[in-house]
Amino acid sequence: MIPKLFVFSTAMTFTASCFAGTPIHSSKNDFTENPFVAVGVNPRTGAVTGYFSARLTRPGRTDACKFAFRGVPGPDGRVRLPIKDAVPGTLGEPQMNGKDLAMLSATQGSIDIALPHSLAPGDCDWVLGAVGGPNIRTDKQGFILSMPTETQSDYIGVATILSKRAVFHSAPSAATARTAFLVAGDMAYVTEEKPGWYHVRFTHALKETVGWIKASDTVRFDGQ
After folding, report:
1. Which domain does 183 fall in, by range?
2. How far is CA 142 from CA 10, 14, 40, 100, in A?
3. In terms of Cα–Cα distance, which of 112, 56, 93, 48 is closest to 74?
4. What is the enclosing helix (H) or strand (E) of 152?
5. Going residue by residue through the chain (224 aa), what tens digit of pLDDT does each one get?
6. For residue 223, is it within any domain?
7. 10 Å Cβ neighbour count for 103?
8. Which H, E and C letters describe 20-83, residue by residue?
9. Which residues face 195 on adjacent strands?
10. Are 201 and 210 in contact (CB under 8 A)?
11. Cis omega (within 30 of 0) on the bond before 82?
12. 32 occurs within a structural domain
């Protein structure tokens, strides 16, 4: 394992100089793991999209930290990330605090996100602190989230659903609507893009659904 060193800059942005330049690929861990992360890299545009979740389960109650992100790798290979909440109720709300940005980097077999306290959406600040464990470290500036992942080659992006219903279509046309749909907060893997449309794969339990959804039904970021 490559050693990691995180520092906090005067611009209130984490950096991760030890593994700058390590290529970032579409990768994820198992959805049942806690925390979970999925990252998609579009080979045409270079855009990196993703989804993170961590759960704190107690008798009769589960609290969650979920957020979506998007960015483009800089010259050093790291991705400065704007963050948007992915918990229904506050879904899609941007997390902004001056010049603060989260930072995504990769090491061999791992995705690493440096998340300042000021950008932690919803209940993330205390959920991440309570979950802890080897994949979540904290200091006075924020959290270091390090998740072992496996490289994937069958998707180019990660989409978080914003609309109450995102209806599946058989083709990138409104005239081909089907009965299947996704709901706000769902996460799907993007396998193809057309103007205004994503071809996605959604897996729930043992069932997989594939088809086209409108891009406008997903959490959007500047530049999309």
Report:
1. 157-217
2. 14, 9, 24, 11
3. 48
4. none
5. 333 333 333 233 333 333 445 789 999 999 889 999 999 999 999 999 999 999 999 898 999 999 999 999 998 889 999 999 998 777 766 665 556 789 999 988 899 999 999 899 889 999 999 999 899 999 888 999 999 999 988 999 999 999 999 999 999 999 999 999 999 999 999 999 999 999 999 998 778 999 999 999 999 987 66
6. no
7. 23
8. CCCCCCCEECCCCCCCEEEEEECCCCCCEEEEEEEEEEECCEEEEEEEEEEECECCCCCEEECE
9. none
10. yes
11. no
12. yes
Look at residue 21 in the predicted model and tell me its pLDDT: 52
Instruction: Tell me if the bond preceding 73 is cis, omega within 30° of 0.
Output: no
- 189 lies in a domain? yes
Residue 87 to residue 84: CA distance in whole angstroms: 9
Do residues 59 and 166 both lie within one domain?
no
C-alpha 73 chain-centroid distance: 15
Q: Which amino acid is at 75?
A: P
Among 151, 171, 189, where does a domain finish?
A: 151
- What is the DSSP-derived secondary structure letter of residue 6? -
Q: Can you give the pLDDT at residue 128?
A: 95
How many residues appear in the chain?
224
